[in-house]
Amino acid sequence: MITAAQINRYQRDGALFIDNALTDSQLGKLQSVTASLIEKSAQITQSNDQYDLDVGHSATKPRLTRIKLPHLLDPVFWQIVRSEQIVNLIKPLINSENIRLHTSKLNTKEPHGGQAVEWHQDWAFYPHTNDDMLAIGILLEDVAEENGPLLVIPETHRGAVLDHSKDGVFCGAINPQDPLFTPEKAITLTGRAGSLSIHHVRTLHGSAPNHSDRARKILFFECGAADAWPINGNSSAYTGMSQKTLWQKMQDNMICGQQTRQARLKDIPVLMPLSPPPDPTSIFKVQQSGGALSAFSAD
Ligand SMILES: O=C(O)CCC(=O)C(=O)O
Predict the structure, then answer these.
(1) What is the per-residue pLDDT across 92-116, written as a single tens digit (0 to 9) for each?
(2) Most buried in the list 83, 167, 177, 199, measured by CB within 10 Å?
């Protein structure tokens, strides 16, 4: 059960780390399904709608940056995100009984060069009518300083929404020269497999490349209050859908409670993630093809 002190910390910092959040059995299931999904990626030679391949990927040595939308690939991912522990953790943070999954992804940083994720706010990718939204990051392996842990800058969830464009193109990352960027305040979210981090949708975060000899695998579930409606035009899971498909998908994506027809509006700056970068298929491709400047290039 989440404590009052943890709720206060999340509200103050926009981020939280919880040790040993999963049971050994839950962790074991996630590790085993992840290993078999990675094994299946050996059969492909190009990124597709399930896998984002890393440089050096081969049939004998699969190298991925991401397994996309894992909740669509195996029921175990739904079992975890709808489990009592997770629901009891996120309800008080989102402050709602009705919570909808926005998206999921399993980011893998392979040993010796797994890629950086440049600094960004998730809000820049998918603005909604309110910001009662967060990302849960479940550590599938131990994560330490040397294998590319998640870095977050506390209190940025209550600050500015920074520009994530370069030369008029959405590049999915802030400019490291932005005067509002204060990397010296970052905290590193390291811990044992089965622990998890939570960060608010507006918290500035990123991660360095993995130069160690251990892989880094974090499973992200991004979700929010059901009355946070996606603002159309963002590169969200909902773009381009008919009303019927949209409504059905919203029901299907409920973690707990009901989808509401009411959209709750909060007065927050929104910069639409447009014009689109040449390759919008994953954050790695958005940042590369959009020409994001790297804050980690010296690593
Ligand atoms: O994998 C990471 O370190 C960060 C992931 C992230 O922020 C994202 O994919 O949006």
Answers:
(1) 999 999 999 999 999 999 999 899 9
(2) 199
Q: For residue 105, which atom of ligand 1 is closest to its CA? A: 9
Determine the distance separating the centroid of ligand 1 and the alpha carbon of 261, expressed in angstroms.
Answer: 30
CA 244 – ligand 1 centroid, Å? 31
pLDDT of residue 113: 85
Share of the chain above pLDDT 70, in %: 97
With the CA atoms of 157, 161, 162 and 164 taken in that order, what torsion angle do they form, in degrees rounded to the nearest 10? 110
Assigned token pair, 197: 């981090």
DSSP state of 191: B
Name the nearest CA neighbour of 135 among 173, 99, 171, 161: 99
Record the pTM. Answer: 0.96
Token pair for residue 263? 């959209």
Cis peptide before 294 (omega within 30 of 0): no
* Atom of ligand 1 at shortest range from CA of 109: 1
Write a three-state SS string for 128-183. ECCCCEEEEEEECCCECHHHCCEEEECCHHHCCCCCCEECCEECCCCCCCCCCCCH
**In this predicted structure, what is the pLDDT of residue 238?**
61
Going by CATH, does the domain composed of 4-289 fall within 1.10.260.40? no
The distance of Cα 280 from the centroid of its chain, to the nearest Å, equals: 15
Rg of the chain, C-alpha, whole Å: 18
The 3-state DSSP class for residue 139 equals strand
Q: Rounded CA gap, 115 and 235, in Å?
A: 22
- pLDDT, position 297: 82
DSSP H or E segment with residue 84: helix 84-94
Low-confidence ranges of the chain (pLDDT < 70): 233-239, 298-299
- Residue ranges around ligand 1 (CB below 6 Å): 105, 107, 117, 122, 150, 205, 207, 218, 283
Dist. CA 37 → ligand 1 center (Å): 19
pLDDT reported for residue 299: 54
